[in-house]
Amino acid sequence: MIARIRSTAQHWTRAVPVLAVVLLILVWGRTLPGVLVGLVTLFLAGSVLAAVHHAEVIAHRVGEPFGSLALAVAVTIIEVALIVTLMADGGDKSAALARDTVFAAVMITCNGIVGLCLLVGALRRRVAIFNPEGTGAALATVSTLAGLSLVLPSFTTSGTGAQFSTPQLIFAALASLVLYGLFVTTQTVRHRDYFLAPVTQTGDVLDSDHAEPPSRRTALISLGHLALALVAVVGLAKAVSPAIEAGVAAAGLPSSVVGVVIALLVLLPETIAAVRAARRGRIQTSLNLGLGSAMASIGLTIPAVATASVWLPGPLELGLGPTHMVLLALTVAAGTLTVIPGRATPLQGGVHLTLFAGYIVLALSP
């Protein structure tokens, strides 16, 4: 019976991404009626769940921290493609789309995902234990990237408004790439042990996974289906974005809400994967996913939009407003105090979730 359930799950997670890509081809560039919007949304949700399944298969095969890194980079590359595509279509009205989406990704990952995972892990085991060396390095890199790319543009005088001048934008793009490259090298080569589960005094590994890893063939098949699922997630999200924009406008909400919705859709696979890891007691894996996604979102998006700004028709606004700067500062401060001990109670999870809730409220009602 169990084998039959696993076989059924394997079949639908392979079929849905293929069908979703076919649907994406059929609806691309068309105005969707209400029925098709519902169908696209259904396949979008199915693609998210399929992406999570295949990402977990790959992560189990390659081990940590490579599994978390692979999912974060894959999702972010597709996210960048979505942002650039929407900016190319939107002109001046999408000038702040990259900023809104990247900042939303930072708040979702550093407060939403991290807070939820700490809460789930701490409720399950009383205290969520993780490696402070690796988690602290990730938080420091995210904080630096966010400050350079999203805060400084609001204070420079060479550009117009909350924009970098061309030399400043080049510096921000290069700094993002260099820092992200240094972090990946640290995570996967020189200090990989900092991003693995801590070892107890008895020598036991806290987040150990004793299940037999999948075969190389199964992992490669999952890799292909993961790519299809991620393309489907972002492509279908773009297909329903006009309906999202129309709904936001009809509700009288700020245009920045569109960036929040896009980030929520794109980060769904990582959110589900991180919470599943936390439920299994794999706190370090969930934190690698959350903070790694934030870092990839900034480290890859800023250089991409900086390059694309050469041919994009509209301006590129990156600077945050005062309200968002305060939220970012609170996030960095709370994150630092959470990471230092290497362990967290439900209180720390609640603190981050409260900051995330505050961000959502202020996004809807500035």
Automatic annotation (TrEMBL):
GO cellular component, one term: plasma membrane
Transmembrane portions of the chain: 12-29, 35-54, 66-87, 102-123, 135-156, 168-186, 219-240, 246-268, 289-312, 318-340, 347-365
Domain Sodium/calcium exchanger membrane region: 35-188, 222-363
Membrane disposition: Multi-pass membrane protein
Compartments (UniProt record): Membrane
Chief location bin: membrane
Keywords in alphabetical order: Membrane, Transmembrane, Transmembrane helix
UniProt-recorded Gene Ontology molecular function terms: potassium:proton antiporter activity; sodium:proton antiporter activity
PANTHER family the record matches: SODIUM-POTASSIUM/PROTON ANTIPORTER CHAA, SODIUM-POTASSIUM_PROTON ANTIPORTER CHAA
Protein name: Ionic transporter y4hA
Organism: Streptomyces benahoarensis
Lineage start: Bacteria, Bacillati, Actinomycetota, Actinomycetes, Kitasatosporales
